[in-house]
Predict the structure.
Amino acid sequence: MIRPTLAFALLALVLGASPAMAAPKIALTTIDNDSGGDVRDAVVDALDGKDLTLVSEKETNRAVDKLKGELADLTEKQAKKLATELEADAIVHGTLDKQGGSKVLKFKLFVNGRKMKGFSVTFTNPRTKKFKAALHDKMVEKVTSPPAEEPVADEKPIKKKPVEEDTEDPNPKKKKSKKDKTVAEKSVDEKPTEDGEETPKPKKAKKTAKVDEDEEEEATPIEIRAQGSPHSANRVAVRLDVGGSFAARRLQFTTTAELAASGQAPKTFKPGPVPGARFEVETYPLAFMNPKSFAAGLGVGVEFDKVLSSKVQTNGGAEPGKSMTVKQQQYSLGARYRLLFGKTATSPSVTVGINYGRRTFKVQSKGILDNRGSLDLPDTDYKYLSPLLGFRVPFTRNIAMIANAEALLVSDAGPIQEASSYGRAKIFGFDSQAGFDVVLGNRFAIRFVGEFSQIGFTFTGGGELAKNRDMDPDTIDIGGASDRVFGGSATVAVLY
């Protein structure tokens, strides 16, 4: 005879070995107005576990980008297509709004291809345990028991509540009293409570997280934009960057072998890196009204960078070794168009445009140098137009790779082109940047960028220093030059 203890052990072993029912799979889209993604992260923490399984954010965003239209207008047909592609049991879309000193997170749900009645959560801090518990329990209820609900278009939930409350009344004789009928009629006009919950429970939850059924249709996109900030980092209306930079210039000349052997060739100018300050602003005015419209991509940009301290020394003359201050700065301004490939915060973007720019390198002699030949370093003052092509490729909502390239169409190079210097030349240049953008919350970001630029000269023989370096004006001694800058910057940005 098998003892009871052993029987229970065998029964537990059999039950434990039986296959467990798989947790429902949810695809949570980007939450509207949650530009930093903090609320979505809290929602993921609340939902992802043994009761529910979440599709990865990257996989969900990739599928959403293929849809036509906005998430706020998602139809059942689109939801079914999305659920099939992601192999999900439910599609959940959220919208974050403000209500006084609190926040309201409204959810729109499609379960097994049907649009279900949504719900909202009122809270102040999404990281609290009560917020996560309330959200978790409500979402599990919605996703795991959809047959108990009717679709949104046909639902009439309020009429059922008095019946459920009457069946639980311990005194059946009082169910049909006039007093109870009055209470039941009054409850129809009040805000409905959750099915199966007693009236006091929602009152206790008001302090931190309140879950409500949504009786009305979803708010229109215009109303949602007016209530919150819809600008994710890849769709900002304004971005202002301020920070530090560094630059290392290298000016090198192409000479004849004879001139180089005689020691008369100009020396390569290659000082160490010098510190600077950088300011950048980008604005897309029409994105204030509708950040997802085609016209929202039209914008303007301004950039200014100034070296804070740079000096050079003379090679000879009346005052050899004399230290001189250098004015070194650059700026550009122009128009651009930003094009996004997708609808989410992790969608990549391409920016095209054209800038007018100026780069100055000028020694501040202040009358000390009577002969610039003793310095043997020409001043430059480049003026140019630069077609722009830029890329922003997010890895996550918070980290993105950026890359920009500009062709520098130089119209004037300044004093280096004078007849007493190297004279006329064919000039062409380019500028390239690459780095990372790190988004911090809803309003701030840090950008780290490395930069390389080069402007090349081919002298045509009209300048004294290009043709008369060896005292023979019939030959060209200096055929060209390359002006390179290696640099970088680290800036803090304010986003809107």
About this structure: The chain is about 20% helix and 40% strand.
